[in-house]
Amino acid sequence: MRISELSAKSRVAIPTIKYYLREGMLHQGEQTAATRAEYDETHLRRLRMIRALLEVGRLSVASIKQVIAAVEDESLPTHRVLGTAHYALSPAVDPEQTEEWRSARALVDDLITELGWDITEEAPTRDELAQTIVRMRQLGLSVDLAPYVEAARRLVAEVEMDAIPFDGPRDAAVEAMVLGTVLYGRVLDTLRRMAHESESARRLTP
Amino acid sequence: MRISELSAKSRVAIPTIKYYLREGMLHQGEQTAATRAEYDETHLRRLRMIRALLEVGRLSVASIKQVIAAVEDESLPTHRVLGTAHYALSPAVDPEQTEEWRSARALVDDLITELGWDITEEAPTRDELAQTIVRMRQLGLSVDLAPYVEAARRLVAEVEMDAIPFDGPRDAAVEAMVLGTVLYGRVLDTLRRMAHESESARRLTP
Fold first, then answer.
1. Which chain B residue has the Cα nearest residue A204?
2. B194–A166: do the CB atoms touch at under 8 Å?
3. Nearest chain A CA: its distance from B22 CA (Å)
4. What is the pTM of this model?
């Protein structure tokens, strides 16, 4: 298809598509004439993935570029690629040089050890969780994480991982994992806010 | 305490504190001289709340202002205040005029009816979830929401709502609900990414 049709189908404006092409976020089409290129379903799918990560995942363009680079890097073993893509989904957090921070970070490390979870020392999720715990403690919120660990473990291990095609081509597995993490994450977050509204209506209105 | 001490304890810079005072996000201190005001624990707590919503919840300053206005508005019944605060936590979504959108939105409305959830027609979470479903369908992801509904329902109804002091002052209940929604939401999201890393390591490394 021509770029105009690709734009219509993906609902991404032509100048934006050209920007993604220049930035290497979208692979080039097949050049059929000096000023004309042909695009296919792989381009449409990539645009839909970028759009979902931007709108639903609210990732920055820089993070999406990292995710795409990880999807496309064929020199790394799959687990490393998944790691790179995953780490691009985590926000950057500046560890504080405080006792509060060290205590929260130790709680996170101990939790991971107790659970027997296989998570690298460099995983940005360790600092991300520590930061949230610091804020929760400052605000007097309970840091009993057990119900959240159980919910996350069950959803990921029993539902989401089974949907990832680990035996197919590598980029399909990485793409499925990234999209699953972001989109089901948003689903869960929205449903929690819905449940909050419903429960507080039930408890507070006569 | 003086503004310098408030700044040191909250780790919020003095010009930022002055900005929050000007914007009405932080209540004025007690004026003890022409150029001197005294602050207390309520100011420190408010600054910690703003910081948590900014950093952990990644809310915009505009959304935080709406949340604070809802916390402070004494003319509304609690349930309405909770609703206003809640709706400020939802991102704005533009409904698309497409068949895909209408079908996703109908799925959301049917789900809410089936669950018997008490959610207003205007709740922005309806469009937010519809948007995610449109993207999931375009990308070929399963839209079986049942495991997510169950996880959200259980966490909110059985854990989070019990931690909210509904019988205390109204602003305390609203603040607890907003902070809980945002901070436990981040905890859950981070733990899901950790579980993903651990599970893929387990399934992919020898």
1. B79
2. no
3. 24
4. 0.87
